[in-house]
Amino acid sequence: MRVGRVMEQLSEHQCQGWLEGYLLTGRHGLFTSYEAFIHIIDSMFNQHAKWLKVTNHIPWRRPIASLNYLLSSHVWRQDHNGFSHQDPGFIDHVVNKKAEVVRVYLPPDANTLLSTYDHCLRSRQYVNVVVAGKQPAPQFLSMEQAVAHCTRGLGIWDWAGTETEGQEPDVVLGCAGDVPTLEVLAAAEILRHRIPDLRVRVVNVVDLMRLQDEKEHPHGLSDKDFDTLFTRDKPVIFAYHGYPWLIHRLTYRRTGHANLHVRGYKEEGTTTTPFDMVMLNDLDRFHLVIDVIDRVPGLASRYAGLRQEMQDKRLEARQYTREHGDDLPEVRDWVWPDAQDLADTTQVDATIGTGGDNE
After folding, report:
1. Residue 148, by phi and psi: left (phi above 0), alpha (psi -120 to 50) or beta?
2. Helices 304-324 and 285-295 meet at what angle, rounded to 10?
3. Where along the sequence do coiled-coil regions lie (predicted)?
4. Which of 3, 159, 160, 338 could form a disulfide with 202 if both were Cys (CB 3.0 to 4.6 A apart)?
5. pTM, full prediction
């Protein structure tokens, strides 16, 4: 008979110690925490990651189940807690460790979260960090699509873009994280209607380490594969869950790195609404549209009016928040048009996983 435990205590140190000991007995587990406060066990994570690296080369030490973190209450949804609870920097800390040990996942919806965690709970000898919000959010992929997407680790969402088969895109919109994905899709919809001749490619990243060079991380993409997805010479506007410089750090060797512009958290926060938070950090859909207009050659002069409209929408959204204590309904209630059909498709299937070549 399979049994488990749910143990709660307001001490990250205690929870980390519990889980490390539990894993050493041969069982499986996960540690869930507020994203901002997982930093409390930074040094304990260090010790476990170093221990895993060393034991990988000790033949008599059997592999143990991975240490799995699930970080919720993340930086973009601290509506009532505010600035003190807004820090996505644990990811930066984790990726300093040996590539053979650490994995970081940013599932964009519930089905990709299910697939990701199915994989994490089956894995051995890793530290898996999964960041996912716990607020109601749109569903973008069916379960089958989510499994395929997680197996790849990243991929083009052709249904969200407007590129023409056989032609290169004019711009790539990249995203990693649930809130950044939502803002990128909303920006893509605006571009679809307002600049219909613009060829937009949308690339979503679940496995963050896929961005790194294959010589630096087992999950890393070859230069050829990276250039195929993100192009060698087109502007890339990348919306990221955490601090923007990590994306630059992971991709600095890539051919088109000079064309990469990253939006993420830049230490601007307060107790406010979800959309106001992304606006404070220039990660919102309106600012992403402005970034596209500014960086795609030929758009600035042709679409100066749209750029101004996007600036006005930001001002309108901020004013509405100040007056009503909530976000504009058109922003708060936005979903991708086709996503509504997937709302009831989330299911748990013990046979699914993120296997393939991306173990």
Report:
1. alpha
2. 160
3. none
4. 160
5. 0.92
